[in-house]
Amino acid sequence: SSLPRDPAAAASPAPAPRQPAVGSPLGLSKIPGYEQTSRLSGTQVLPRWFSTGTSNGSSAQQEGATRKVMAFSPLEASIAKPRKGPLTSESWKVKQTELLTRSTYYMIPTLLLVSKNSISTSLLVASVFHQVYMFYKEILLDYVHHDITRKWVFIYFKILLIIMAKETVVYFDLF
Amino acid sequence: EKALLEEDTALKRFKSYKNSVKQVSKVGNILTGVVLFACAYEIVALANS
User: Mean pLDDT per segment of 10 residues, for chain A of length 175 residues?
Assistant: First the structure.
């Protein structure tokens, strides 16, 4: 009921011509089978067979019937509202780490070419050591299978790399 | 029913490590923070001296 209805389309007995879903924020019109008819509200999305089957009937009964249908496909339910949970924050952390890894990967050659002062050079050192850490992390994830051993290996390796990066920065007088 | 809920010695090998993993990761975060702080402090002290 958020969208203004077209009175001509609602009054005509013929099935309303399909319009591209203009107000859909999720881009559901791109998914085949999920289209918006003009007489339904903007948030209500129906599959094609459902909307064509009931478009000849009366409007009030049809809407009453369709209100009861909540989310009958898992795809629609997953699109409709993102769920909050510990796994969501975990995946956000994973995304953050991936972004950091990718950005440091591209920062290394860029800073090698561009870096002029000491701060950007120590940033280069830090990104190199971050790449080393992620590289060995992948290998250790493959070969160390006990959870606690894995954690301790990561902790000690991270501390070692931090100290090595610090020594590199101090040795070359980057600060 | 209570006999079923009691700890089984045969299943003791399969206990979950979730809590200890959390503890270890907390310790690791603290250790990493301490080391990072010490390194930053040393660099700043060297830069100022």
Answer: 48 47 50 50 49 46 53 62 77 91 92 88 93 94 92 94 93 81
The residue among A106, A104, A101, A136 whose CA lies nearest residue A123 is A104
pTM of the complete model: 0.57
> Using an 8 Å Cβ cutoff, are A16 and A39 in contact?
yes
Measured CA to CA, the distance from residue A153 to residue A137 in angstroms comes to 9
Diameter over CA atoms, chain A: 83
Q: To probe the interface with A, which of B42, B44, B49 has the most A CB atoms within 10 Å?
A: B42
CB contact under 8 A, A155 and B31: yes
**d(C-alpha A138, C-alpha A98), whole Å:** 12
Q: How many CB atoms are located within 10 Å of the residue A151 CB? A: 20
Q: Which sign, positive or negative, has the C-alpha torsion A119, A106, A97, A161? A: negative
Q: What is the ipTM of this complex?
A: 0.76
Bridge partners of A46, per DSSP, are: A35
On chain A, the residues whose CB falls within 8 A of the CB of B44 are 175
Question: Across-strand partners of A142?
Answer: none
